[in-house]
Amino acid sequence: MSTPQYHSERTYSYQDYVNLSTEERFELIDGVPYNMSPSPSRRHQQILGQLATEFTFYLRGKTCEALIAPFDVRLFANGKTDDEIRDVVQPDLSVICNPDKLDDKGCKGSPDLIVEILSPSTGKLDRWIKYKLYERAGVREYWLVEPTNSTIEIFTLNEQGRYELHGVYGRGDTVPVGIFEDLAIDLKVIFRD
């Protein structure tokens, strides 16, 4: 397995990201590479699979799509070349409602909804760095899933472009999906043992 050679004195572009020959997964935030956690846990994958199933079933026949990692999301990419893009993330689950944002490389622009499933090694990145990045990028809804406690924190973008905590939901709750008026997800299904 080859390891990317990062140099702290420079920033990286999407073109660099694509050209680095590596099996290691990483993301770019403001041109700075962040290693992604090692292989996700079985619990992480179970939760992701259930969420993806719920969204995919609901979106069947609709314009929006639900896509799971590994899937490159190039933020702030409108009108930019690959050499100019400095933010590339791989959210656990992305819901994109504008088909023009999708291409063979992934998503070019902000998804409407992003779900990140926390792990011990990604907590700070997901809770603060990505939170601020997604807020700045205009992602309308951001879900933070805590597998250990079986909870989901949902943040929605307000009119001032800032995230507000919409709610914290647990195993016995049904979660309303803010970007869709008629979708609610039963967390007993998502957090089943």
UniProtKB/TrEMBL annotation:
<protein>
    <submittedName>
        <fullName>Uma2 family endonuclease</fullName>
    </submittedName>
</protein>
<keyword id="KW-0255">Endonuclease</keyword>
<dbReference type="InterPro" id="IPR012296">
    <property type="entry name" value="Nuclease_put_TT1808"/>
</dbReference>
<feature type="domain" description="Putative restriction endonuclease">
    <location>
        <begin position="15"/>
        <end position="186"/>
    </location>
</feature>
<dbReference type="GO" id="GO:0004519">
    <property type="term" value="F:endonuclease activity"/>
</dbReference>
<dbReference type="InterPro" id="IPR011335">
    <property type="entry name" value="Restrct_endonuc-II-like"/>
</dbReference>
<dbReference type="Pfam" id="PF05685">
    <property type="entry name" value="Uma2"/>
</dbReference>
<keyword id="KW-0540">Nuclease</keyword>
<dbReference type="InterPro" id="IPR008538">
    <property type="entry name" value="Uma2"/>
</dbReference>
<keyword id="KW-0378">Hydrolase</keyword>
